[in-house]
Task: structure prediction
Amino acid sequence: MVSRQESRQRLIRHRNAMARYHKDRQRNVLAKPGPYEFVLVLDHLKAGFNVPKLFRSGWAFGAKAIHLVNIEPFDPAPAKGAFRKVPAHFHDDFKSCYEALTKDKYTLFRLEKNTQTQLTNCALPQKSAFILGNEGLGHSFNADYYPDVVSLGIPQFGEMESLNVSIAGSIVMYEYLRQHPLADDVLPQMEKA
Result:
């Protein structure tokens, strides 16, 4: 049984987290795109731990932007300031996100297990959008309605059913950077920022 004091402390933590979210979301309008052309699409992820961790990784790997599809407000504290640094685009549904990205000529990849196209054998285009689905429910859209969205898997050899979504996102971003190294003259500019 939860005591009245514990319940009150939880409520205060939640209010503080929501205040941080709204403050950082307002600051996000000043965020600058990273040096790479790839974007992440967080498709109906739980609003907890993984969303801010993906902002942190997106910032570290130089993401152009992160698109959030139907994601509730989250505590940005685990992002360590990255929610203010990586441009965020908010969508109520996948269709609006899809339309925006295809209009900008992005190739969309949805991360899935047990698919033929593996990350290690795929040439990723400059304009790649990586769709990360809900931790328990998967993607929010019916793949049959979006036949141009490519299923992409990360090779796994253990008996785990899947990787944590923030870990999977980081692996995909790393592979993108490996395939698309920046010119040497871009790196000193990034260090000054």
